[in-house]
């Protein structure tokens, strides 16, 4: 597909560190964090005006799922907007906690393992044609995803355990994957999840659900991660043959690769060959490059993605990690950890280094170490504050725009509504639930006419300025797009 819909779901780690004693239990802390969400949407599982979903599962890992995006920069900005939402909620939660007589700070971490060893995810969603042969898809995509950590892993300080010494690994998630492909997400944690929920026209499309990725802080790394995966999918869809990297044991391979930062860990393919992650990635990279030179780039960031991809492989192969230590999360973090360990004379097993690993993922823009490195010019970041602010209030130009407008209009008229990725329903007109199956659609006449029945939108609605919205709520993402023009009398909803 030249034109694809993407979405990323991020689960965040949440901790309270009081001045003395134990912090609040995780579920209580999560309730503090989500109080403004519940006040805004009367539920802890809501869609918000920018088209994204904010969600607190039974556990205590708040989740933000970006709206459907058809552009990688929109996707990355929307994902960063999710970090900003979590940060704003944490600031508010901390204030409430203090008002309730507790001390200390609230940390929201965009990482994938907590200090107790629990893992939480960063799931990618790619719209693919239903005609894509699943066996062929997995034959090519699995080896790509198993080895993708060397170009887009978040890096991890791994503490000593039994016979294993403390060391630095490529990935946070690799040790927590248990299966190659399956339809379960929590029980078995597959790399590719096959649960068939396309959130689109099921006759023509699938939603490919990839569960294996690390949460990235660096926007350059995110671009490479989603951009390279899209390119590989594009080649699969075009029928280019690349089946010779199928792995004998993908789960053993993903772990072996993660724990050998030289990139030389050997893994066995099904044809009995011993190969390294760099060899697999190089093989795929070369075919992608050839494919692009034959078919042309399908968006403006392809050259940048290929340049970064090649440089990352060169860095791993040569051992000269300085080639990517401003762009790729694991290398940025590794340099930071090495700097601290050299300056302070700390061994790799020193607990301070694990804390640095966690602090790298702190979403607080003033305190988080990734953000600090950006300010010091030690890490690149190409999504601007303006783009993130926009992504907090404005849906991307996909079906999310319809959802955002529907929610914003219903809210200003005080009309109760429910939505999900596909459905739109006004509660007092339940028979008129409208499905928008096309994730690229930006306009839907049926929804327009349903909203028209709420009132004369043109004359009633006034769009709030950014300044007004900033004044309005805890976080920009939980503010209303519209207010009613002065003198507007909202008609009573007609009885069904
Ligand atoms: N047709 C589509 N193709 C690709 N991605 C989509 C499509 N429709 C929605 N998405 C994206 O898929 C993600 C769905 O997130 P959500 O958290 O609801 O996932 P889920 O797998 O349905 O459910 P859960 O997290 O509850 O298991 C969002 O990021 C959304 O933007
Ligand atoms: Mg989800």
From TrEMBL:
<keyword id="KW-0067">ATP-binding</keyword>
<dbReference type="GO" id="GO:0019787">
    <property type="term" value="F:ubiquitin-like protein transferase activity"/>
</dbReference>
<keyword id="KW-0436">Ligase</keyword>
<feature type="binding site">
    <location>
        <position position="53"/>
    </location>
    <ligand>
        <name>ATP</name>
    </ligand>
</feature>
<feature type="binding site">
    <location>
        <position position="55"/>
    </location>
    <ligand>
        <name>Mg(2+)</name>
    </ligand>
</feature>
<comment type="pathway">
    <text>Protein modification; protein pupylation.</text>
</comment>
<feature type="active site" description="Proton acceptor">
    <location>
        <position position="57"/>
    </location>
</feature>
<dbReference type="GO" id="GO:0070490">
    <property type="term" value="P:protein pupylation"/>
</dbReference>
<feature type="binding site">
    <location>
        <position position="63"/>
    </location>
    <ligand>
        <name>Mg(2+)</name>
    </ligand>
</feature>
<comment type="similarity">
    <text>Belongs to the Pup ligase/Pup deamidase family. Pup-conjugating enzyme subfamily.</text>
</comment>
<protein>
    <recommendedName>
        <fullName>Pup--protein ligase</fullName>
        <ecNumber>6.3.1.19</ecNumber>
    </recommendedName>
</protein>
<dbReference type="GO" id="GO:0019941">
    <property type="term" value="P:modification-dependent protein catabolic process"/>
</dbReference>
<comment type="function">
    <text>Catalyzes the covalent attachment of the prokaryotic ubiquitin-like protein modifier Pup to the proteasomal substrate proteins, thereby targeting them for proteasomal degradation. This tagging system is termed pupylation. The ligation reaction involves the side-chain carboxylate of the C-terminal glutamate of Pup and the side-chain amino group of a substrate lysine.</text>
</comment>
<keyword id="KW-0479">Metal-binding</keyword>
<dbReference type="GO" id="GO:0005524">
    <property type="term" value="F:ATP binding"/>
</dbReference>
<dbReference type="InterPro" id="IPR022279">
    <property type="entry name" value="Pup_ligase"/>
</dbReference>
<keyword id="KW-0460">Magnesium</keyword>
<dbReference type="GO" id="GO:0000287">
    <property type="term" value="F:magnesium ion binding"/>
</dbReference>
<dbReference type="InterPro" id="IPR004347">
    <property type="entry name" value="Pup_ligase/deamidase"/>
</dbReference>
<dbReference type="Pfam" id="PF03136">
    <property type="entry name" value="Pup_ligase"/>
</dbReference>
<keyword id="KW-0547">Nucleotide-binding</keyword>
<comment type="pathway">
    <text>Protein degradation; proteasomal Pup-dependent pathway.</text>
</comment>
<keyword id="KW-0833">Ubl conjugation pathway</keyword>
<feature type="binding site">
    <location>
        <position position="9"/>
    </location>
    <ligand>
        <name>Mg(2+)</name>
    </ligand>
</feature>
<feature type="binding site">
    <location>
        <position position="421"/>
    </location>
    <ligand>
        <name>ATP</name>
    </ligand>
</feature>
<dbReference type="GO" id="GO:0010498">
    <property type="term" value="P:proteasomal protein catabolic process"/>
</dbReference>
<dbReference type="GO" id="GO:0016879">
    <property type="term" value="F:ligase activity, forming carbon-nitrogen bonds"/>
</dbReference>
<feature type="binding site">
    <location>
        <position position="66"/>
    </location>
    <ligand>
        <name>ATP</name>
    </ligand>
</feature>
């Amino acid at each position: 597909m030249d034109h694809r819909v993407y979405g990323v779901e991020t689960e965040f780690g949440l901790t309270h560190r009081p001045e003395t004693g134990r912090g609040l239990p995780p579920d209580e802390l999560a309730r503090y964090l989500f109080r403004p969400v519940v006040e805004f949407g009367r539920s802890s599982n809501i869609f918000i005006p920018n088209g994204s979903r904010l969600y607190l599962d039974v556990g205590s890992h708040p989740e933000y799922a970006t709206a459907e995006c058809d552009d990688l920069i929109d996707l990355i900005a929307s994902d960063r907007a999710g970090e900003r939402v979590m940060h704003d909620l944490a600031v508010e939660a901390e204030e409430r906690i203090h008002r309730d007589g507790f001390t200390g700070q609230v940390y929201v971490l965009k990482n994938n393992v907590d200090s107790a060893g629990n893992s939480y995810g960063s799931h990618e969603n790619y719209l693919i044609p239903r005609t894509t042969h699943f066996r062929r898809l997995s034959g090519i995509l699995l080896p790509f995803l198993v080895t993708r950590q060397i170009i887009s892993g978040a890096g991890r300080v791994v503490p000593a355990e039994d016979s294993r010494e403390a060391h630095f690994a490529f990935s946070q998630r690799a040790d927590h994957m248990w299966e190659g492909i399956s339809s379960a997400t929590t029980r078995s944690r597959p790399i590719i999840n096959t649960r068939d929920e396309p959130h689109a026209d099921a006759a023509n499309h699938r939603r490919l659900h990839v569960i294996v990725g690390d949460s990235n802080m660096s926007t350059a790394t995110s671009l490479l991660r989603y951009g390279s995966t899209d390119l590989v999918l594009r080649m699969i869809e075009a029928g280019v043959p690349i089946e010779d990297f199928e792995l004998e044991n993908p789960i053993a391979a993903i772990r072996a690769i993660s724990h050998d930062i030289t990139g030389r860990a050997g893994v066995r393919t099904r044809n009995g060959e011993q190969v390294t992650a760099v060899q697999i990635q190089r093989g795929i990279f070369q075919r992608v490059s050839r494919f692009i030179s034959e078919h042309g780039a399908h968006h403006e960031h392809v050259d940048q993605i290929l340049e970064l991809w090649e440089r990352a492989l060169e860095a791993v192969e040569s051992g000269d990690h300085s080639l990517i230590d401003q762009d790729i999360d694991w290398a940025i973090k590794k340099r930071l950890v090495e700097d601290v360990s050299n300056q302070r004379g700390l061994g790799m097993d020193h607990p301070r280094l694990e804390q640095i690993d966690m602090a790298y993922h702190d979403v607080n823009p003033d305190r988080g170490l990734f953000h600090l490195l950006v300010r010091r010019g030690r890490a690149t970041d190409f999504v601007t504050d303006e783009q993130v602010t926009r992504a907090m209030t404005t849906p991307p130009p996909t079906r999310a725009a319809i959802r955002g407008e529907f929610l914003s209009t219903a809210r200003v008229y005080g009309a109760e509504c429910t939505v999900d990725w596909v459905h739109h329903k006004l509660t007092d007109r339940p028979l008129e639930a409208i499905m928008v199956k096309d994730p690229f659609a930006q306009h839907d006449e049926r929804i327009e006419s349903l909203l028209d029945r709420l009132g004369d939108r043109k004359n009633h609605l006034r769009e709030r300025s950014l300044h007004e919205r900033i004044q309005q709520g805890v976080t920009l993402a939980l503010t209303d797009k519209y207010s009613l023009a002065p003198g507007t009398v909202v008609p009573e909803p007609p009885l069904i």
